[in-house]
Amino acid sequence: MMFSDGLRAREAADTPPILLVDDEVAILDGLRRQLRKRFTVYTASSGAEALELLESESVAVVVSDMRMPAMDGATFLSRVHALYPNVVRILLTGQADTQSAIAAVNEGKIYRFLTKPSPPEVLLEEIGSAVELNRLVTAEKVLLSTTLRRTVEALTATLSLAQPGAFGRAVRMARTVTELAEALQIEEPWELEVTAMLSQLGAVTLPPNVLAKLDSGRPLTEDEAQMADRVPAISRDLVATIPRLEGVAEAIGCHRARFDGNGSAPRVPRGEDLPLAARILRLAADFDAGMAQRPSVQATIGVLRADAGAYDPRLLDALISCHDVPGAQGPPRDVDVLDLEPGMVVFDDVFTTEGVLLISRGTVVTEPLVLRLENYANQQRVGRLIRVQG
Asked: Is residue 148 in a domain?
């Protein structure tokens, strides 16, 4: 049994899955015979049938005829693009459909179009190239979701140890970014969240007293304000050295720019030309700064609305919609260190008996954090009651 499972796994790896779509059964049978030695071939006789099949089967490439009843090939492949963006799409067309096919390719929804009848060797080569493209795109996704994620986690973990106040600010900002992404129905918010988490890396250059002022919302001296103003550029330069995070670095570098462009240098983008991540980060940072002394959410949003030109109106509306229900998390409560559970949110800054900030408010409780607090509590270096929400 184990041998047959392994054999099937090797066969699946050697014959990548593809889907052929055509309303003429004879053509599907002919294509299947041409391709079955190199690929695992699925077939469907309409766009609707193909979409239903894709709900249960993963494929690398979809090859569709252009002229089909009810849903033509270009429309069908556009649907595939929206639902399964990693699947590579090829369109088969007759000579009369060439202009429509070119239009579809130019819109960026289709990888290739081939005229019918397509020689077997050409079809094999093009599908093989499409399978390789799918492999590269999938590998890129894996890299982003594993290697880069772990790099970001390592950097932010270091920040949490070196500057817990700055780490707490980054966590709170990231939470606001996540709320905004959900309200805006952004499908893959990972890059936005990473932008928030890494935006505070430059804070490692700030003296503890300046960080304390920033975290509590107290006014800074002129020299201290200059130090704080350099944080975005330092964070940008640190992140820019990480491959594939160039967009994140750019967003961090320009996130203090106003949406209306007032006060910006000539080459700094404005309006819709500002990266979305930069616009969201600006709003999240200012919202966190406004909440530093714990005024009501409504009061903080009122301040943001009074300076509306600084923000993308669509994002500001989304933030307002996220906070329509005050106290949705429930009132804060004091919990003994031994009763802390992962997922709770630290409501107040936690200081050691020596007055050192140990955990910043807004930090999500994790198992390592519980162990850390237990160790400090056992040494009587921190109070046993921690105020949390959730």
From this structure: no
Of the candidates 305, 328, 351, which is a domain's last residue? 328
Return d(Cα 33, Cα 115) in angstroms, integer: 19
Structure pTM? 0.57
State the pLDDT at residue 2.
37
Q: Which tokens go with 221? A: 């001296």
Contact 347, 389 (CB under 8 A): yes
Domain count for the chain, please give it. 3
pLDDT < 70 regions, the chain: 1-13, 95-109, 143-145, 293-295, 324-331, 390
Q: Is residue 112 part of a domain?
A: yes
- Which tokens is 206 given? 């700030």
Amino acid type, 26: A
Range of the domain at 368: 329-390
pLDDT in the model for residue 227: 92
- Indicate whether 170 and 317 sit together in one domain: yes
